Amino acid sequence: MSNKIKVAIVGPGNIGTDLMYKILKRSKFMELAYMIGIDPDSEGLKRAAALGIKTSHSGMEEMLQDEDVKIVFEATSAKGHYINAPIYLEANKIAVDLTPAAVGPYVVPVVNMGNLLAEKNVNLVTCGGQATVPIVAAVSQVQPVLYAEIVSTISSLSAGPGTRANIDEFTETTSKALEIVGGAKKGKAIIILNPAEPPIMMRNTIYTLVENNPDMEKITESVNAMVMKIQQYVPGYKLKVPPIWDGEKITTMIEVEGAGDFLPAHAGNLDIINSAAFIVGDTIAEYLLKQGSNKV
User: Fold this and answer.
1) If DSSP codes are grouped into helix, strand and coil, which group holds residue 283?
2) Which residue ranges form the domains of the chain, and what is each CATH number?
3) Catalytic positions, please?
4) Which CA distances in Å does 192 have to 163, 170, 223?
5) For residue 78, what is the enclosing H or E element?
6) Integer distance in angstroms from the first to the last C-alpha of the chain?
7) What is the pLDDT of residues 84-108, one digit of tens each?
8) Residue 204 phi/psi, 5° resolution?
9) Cβ distance 178 to 184 under 8 Å?
10) How far apart are CA 184 and CA 32, in angstroms?
11) 19 to 13, 86, 273: CA distances (angstroms)
12) The whole model's pTM is what?
């Protein structure tokens, strides 16, 4: 498949498995060559092997030595990526990091993907970041955002061990992304795990403080345009409450329903970061192919 770039997924859990199906179903420019984990009884590894993908539960050596593999998706944990990032760099692999480790620059596809095509390591922020940073960016494109605060509420059932282990990193990384990518002067992030039955969809409330008398017509147009861009790769991304102005505060609410490639519909938090990772990977792969030699 000379018209595609070989890629690998490290971490065969729910996120890695869902990403696998997204790549296999939709990618124009990526060929999934490896799925790597640490548990020989991993359901994700078994699924990958059944689909003819090379798997390993005892190390990354073969993948790292495979010069045809140009992109590695990190779907483990923040601590895992701190360890693996220099290994990928030494092996001349581009890392697309789905953990909140933030070793490389933050990437939110609809906001700044075009500026990061030559990076060796890019960070997908968090699920909450992918859902909310674009809205803050949409507001800041119209008027300066003095402060942005987001509250992401997700179903407890869609918060696996990795998510729970990374709660501190989630809040810190998302807060910084609201500033660095979203354009807010100050950012704050809160995550809530909701145990309700039946499970709720991912819900995000975005508060932005702007100067007096904001141009709400232009802000609403900017937010609507941003939502439409995100829906091109996350169809379940929905504007539930359009921007509402109350004094200096603008409130917007977003719901995310998963695509159901592997995970249930209520796992919109996992779906949106995987969808963003997929777009980032496919865009980088296309960029590499356009270089003419498939070299990183």
Assistant:
1) helix
2) 5-124+274-291 (3.40.50.720), 127-263 (3.30.360.10)
3) 127
4) 12, 11, 24
5) helix 78-90
6) 18
7) 999 999 999 999 999 999 999 999 9
8) -130, 125
9) yes
10) 37
11) 10, 23, 9
12) 0.94
